[in-house]
Design goal:
Helix content is 25%, strand content 19%. By secondary structure, the chain is an alpha/beta fold. The strands form 2 sheets. The protein has an 8-stranded parallel β-sheet with strand order 1-6-5-4-3-2-9-10. A two-stranded parallel ribbon has the order 7-8.
Length: 204
Amino acid sequence: MSLIKTLKEFAGIHTGKKIIVCGCGVSLVDFKEHHQDFITIGVNDVSELFDPTYLLVTDHSGRFSSDRRRRVHGTNAKYVFTCAKGWYHKNLVHFELGSRSLTNLDHPDRIDHYMNSPYAAAILAYKMGAKNIGLIGVDFTDGHFYNLKDGKHPIVKSNYLNKVNSAYQTLSSELAKRGTTLVNLSPISNLAIRKISLEEFKKI
């Protein structure tokens, strides 16, 4: 039987810490050997490569193939955060999906969104109290770590990359006003926010 918690129970649990948000881009592969050094929030299929500290899924399970559902259901993450139906885990955390305009950035039970799961995961990291948030595997390049032949990222194919970049830049600015930094740790990423190396991130 699942233990279902609410988002507000996790408010500030990692105050002042570093958290790395892990997407499913190709750059995640190089991070695998370092993941145990950090608090991590993975999204969707990340557990196919390694088990993050936490996993976040915003889409209904029916939108995933059977293999992808297996990866989520089989995760050994401490908690799975979701706003959608169809997921099970021994420790589920349900949250309300907010808006695309960051109106719920400081709401205790809602997480805003913008077209991709790592965006919501970065907001979760902020709500947990992170002072520094790094992004890895948020690449918007061809392929995913679990399928290098996946072709163009859907956001790129749909010509939404500029809008997504703008949304992340706005998020970065709003977090900075609150004393939290958001940086990109992937050297190959097409996400247009400040890039630093993993070694630099360790030192900040």
